[in-house]
Design a protein that fits this description.
Elements lengths: L1 E4 L10 E4 L9 E10 L2 H7 L16 E9 L11 E5 L8 E5 L3 E3 L13 H14 L7 E5 L4 H12 L3 E6 L2 H9 L4 E4 L5 H8 L5 E6 L6 H7 E9 L12 H7 L2 E4 L7 H14 L1 H5 L7 E6 L3 H9 L6 E5 L2
Parallel strand pairs: 8-9, 8-11, 9-10, 11-12, 12-13, 14-15
Antiparallel strand pairs: 1-2, 3-4, 3-6, 3-15, 4-5, 5-7
Length: 326
């Protein structure tokens, strides 16, 4: 088979489409013939040499894919060869075939094209696990999403609205904010021109955001705490603004606030399986009835993954950039 390899860390040109051995599904795994994968920021970090796959995972980048089951490993039940699926991965999505733990498989939701299903697993599992399983967003509360036009952001808007929450977003252009509004965002903040702390306070009559989903990390840490409502919850899922920041513990105490920081890739298999099962139970029906949908900016041939990485690094996209295997 062919897959994207990274012989040496570097820029997008470090991604090489090469012939590699086929993966063999181990105990509890299935072999998926990949139709499409999707680009995530974690893939860019891996390409740059900053985010190695966990032990035992595929060295090829790619944290999600869609395709058809080609073979079942020992001990797998409930799935059959030919089933159309999408999957959460620890690596291996930028390839024509990949081995997946059965607990990380999802059926393609009703009404979703097989290719576009590749845009779902990583973003849905990230949003559901952080916003709902950890931060416990409730109906009537306000969620602030940084990077509202990203793959994570576009999914967070839809899931929060489906749950009866009010949604605020930050983005850097009017086009991106308009797209967020089209998905249901109520409060639109241009972070290039506006202070999100002031804007969220103004929009909530001084109360602040009950939950903040943050992809920036250090750069926004102090302002995120100031933007929280009393009993607010800050969920950090990225470090695009740096890894080390200064926390005003007094301000956090005054808010009776909570900060969580999680990632999916290196979690134990049973934890990822539990998140995937929750997504199938709670989110797949919302997709089937049209309340939630994948947002895809464009599709790029997988062999041209370097082009897709450039698009994502330039932040000119809205939603997900897919890599089509054939």
């Amino acid at each position: 088979m062919h897959a994207i390899t990274i012989p040496e860390p570097g820029g997008p040109e470090a991604l090489v489409w090469d012939e590699v051995p086929d993966p063999v599904p181990a105990e509890g795994e299935v072999l998926v013939e990949v139709v499409a994968g999707a680009v995530n920021r974690a893939d860019i970090l891996q390409r740059q040499g900053h985010y190695d796959p966990p032990p035992g995972a595929s060295r090829h980048p790619g944290l999600e894919c869609s395709g058809r089951i080609a073979a079942l490993g020992p001990g797998v039940s409930g799935w059959a060869v030919g089933d159309e699926v999408c999957a959460l991965l620890a690596g291996g999505g930028y390839a024509e075939k990949t081995a997946v733990p059965a607990g990380q498989l999802l059926p393609v939701p009703q009404g979703v094209d097989l290719r576009q299903a590749a845009a779902l697993p990583e973003v849905v599992c990230t949003v559901w696990s952080n916003v709902f399983m950890v931060a416990h967003l409730r109906p009537g509360e306000t969620l602030l999403v940084h990077g509202g036009s990203s793959g994570i952001g576009t999914m967070a808007i839809q899931l929060a609205k489906a749950a009866g929450a009010r949604v605020a977003v930050t983005a850097g252009t009017r086009e991106k904010l308009d797209r967020c509004a089209g998905l249901g965002a109520d409060i639109l903040i241009n972070y290039r021109e506006q202070d999100f702390v002031e804007e969220i306070r103004r929009a909530t009559d001084g109360a602040g955001a009950d939950v903040i989903l943050d992809n920036m990390g250090a750069k926004y840490l102090d302002r995120n705490v100031r933007a929280l409502a009393v009993n607010g919850r800050l969920a950090i899922i990225g470090m695009q603004g740096g890894a080390k920041g200064e926390l005003n513990i007094g301000a956090l105490l005054a808010k009776r606030g909570a900060i969580s920081a999680t990632s999916l890739r290196a979690r134990p298999l049973d934890e990822k399986a539990a998140i995937v099962a929750a997504v199938r139970e709670h989110v797949w029906p919302l997709i089937a009835d049209g309340q939630v949908r994948p947002v895809v900016d464009r599709e790029v041939p997988m062999r041209d993954a370097a082009t897709a990485h450039r698009i994502v690094e330039e932040s000119g996209h809205i939603g997900k950039v897919l890599l089509v295997a054939s």
